[in-house]
Amino acid sequence: MKKRFFTIIFILACWTSYVDLTSGSLPTGQAAQTTAQISEKATVAYQRITVSPGDTLLSITERINESEPSIEEILKDFAVLNPSVNPNHLQIGKTYAFPSYSKANNTGSTSATP
Predict the structure, then answer these.
(1) How many other CB atoms are found less than 10 A from the CB of residue 66?
(2) Quick check: 68 and 101 in contact, CB under 8 A?
């Protein structure tokens, strides 16, 4: 009985290892994704702004842009410019890169909110 139990456990361990390795759970291809984000980041114009109390991603983007792009586009561009930041939880006093869609703004310009 013990022999069957250990055989079943061994087969289960082998099967889960096989599924893990073949399903792509290992971080492969991450370098290609990072390169794509860097090249896309270069095409997105932005302004560095320090967040004040009451500011949101949408309110700051509306304040610095004359046109009104879609919310999906704003979220996508913000994620490209700030890869490790949750746009729903901006921290007061921290500076983030916000997408700038006005042609008058230069890529990488710096400004602070009053």
Answers:
(1) 10
(2) no
51 in a structural domain: yes
Q: How many CA atoms lie within 13 A of 15 on its CB side?
A: 6
Number of domains observed in the structure of the chain: 1
Range of the domain at 106: 38-114
- Which ranges in 1-114 belong to alpha helices (H)? 2-22, 30-43, 57-64, 71-81
Q: Distance between CA 22 and CA 74 in Å, rounded?
A: 35
Q: Which residue's structure tokens are 């893990």?
A: 20
Whole-angstrom Cα distance, residue 81 to residue 101? Answer: 13
**In whole angstroms, what separates CA 26 from the centre of its chain?**
20
pLDDT tens by residue, 61-94? 989 888 888 889 899 999 999 988 898 889 999 9
Q: Is residue 63 domain-resident?
A: yes
